[in-house]
Amino acid sequence: MRRKLVAGNWKMHGLKAQLGEVEAIAAEAAANPGVDVALCVPFTLIAPAVAVAGGLPIGAQDLHEADKGAHTGCISGAMLRECGATLTIVGHSERRADQHETSHDAWAKAAAARRHGLQVILCCGETDAERDAGRAERIVQSQIEKSLPEGAHGDWLTLAYEPRWAIGTGKTPTLDEIGSIHAIARAKLRTMVGDAAAGIRILYGGSVTGANAADILAVDNVDGALVGGASLTAEKFVPIIRGAA
Ligand code: PEP
């Protein structure tokens, strides 16, 4: 039985002034023990967030694939662990678009995170042009094939299906479309890791709000949500946590 996971992605938002939101979200997570909750915050906020989160898992949004070295401006898995992170996102579509990261990069980063004992949320999802061309399913299958690290297991790896055209736009696929891609993603995992696929959570991400969360989270093979904008305040995030409980 896969527990639902609701993970917030604060992107490049959040100063210490927002730590009260972390505390309020942590309190709500503690009040809903049936659902897993996590927050992925900017690097600079990881240690301060851990200090107020009372055990709520705090994560990063990226890391470098190397363990250390001459990589100016980058962050290693060991550094994330040292400041208290327990998980990280890899392969987010904004990094694919802004930093030209590929599925191979996501694969290497996921493996690095695993080496350092971090939980991994591995993102995949098609662009609107790929969707319009009827290629969404093939793109998601191909991204999973190229980015799933060796030994992928639900104990440490979560997949997130995030159609790029749905991120931050207020648009979402229909529930049938979400169910169909999640089923395809599950089948792809099965061909790659066999029975272990049944234990790997597949989150949906892209314009999840308190208004649509419960419906989306009730779809087969949707094991939680990766939430951007609506995770920035407890007021918006709490209804999503409750929708998963
Ligand atoms: C995201 O950035 O992972 C995301 C899903 O963003 P939003 O919820 O704002 O669409």
Summarize, please.
The protein is α/β, with parallel strands linked by helices and 245 residues long.
Layout of helices and strands, plus pairs?
Layout: E1 5-9, H1 19-31, E2 36-40, H2 43-53, E3 58-60, H3 77-82, E4 87-90, H4 93-98, H5 103-115, E5 119-124, H6 128-132, H7 136-147, E6 157-161, H8 175-193, E7 201-205, H9 213-217, E8 224-227, H10 234-244
Parallel strand pairs: 1-2, 1-8, 2-3, 3-4, 4-5, 5-6, 6-7, 7-8
Helix pairs in contact: 1-2, 1-10, 5-7, 7-8
The protein binds phosphoenolpyruvate (PEP).
Residues 9, 162, 167-168, 205-208, 226-230 line the site of phosphoenolpyruvate.
Keywords: Cytoplasm, Gluconeogenesis, Glycolysis, Isomerase
Active site: 92 (electrophile), 162 (proton acceptor)
EC number: 5.3.1.1
Key terms for this structure?
globular, alpha/beta, eight-stranded parallel β-barrel, 245 residues, TIM Barrel, binds phosphoenolpyruvate
What does this structure look like?
- β1, α1 and β2 form a beta-alpha-beta unit.
- This protein has ten helices and eight strands.
- The chain has 245 residues and is of the alpha/beta class.
- It has one domain: TIM Barrel (Alpha-Beta Barrel).
- Strands 1-2-3-4-5-6-7-8 form an eight-stranded parallel barrel, surrounded by six helices.
- Phosphoenolpyruvate is lined by residues 9, 162, 167-168, 205-208, 226-230.
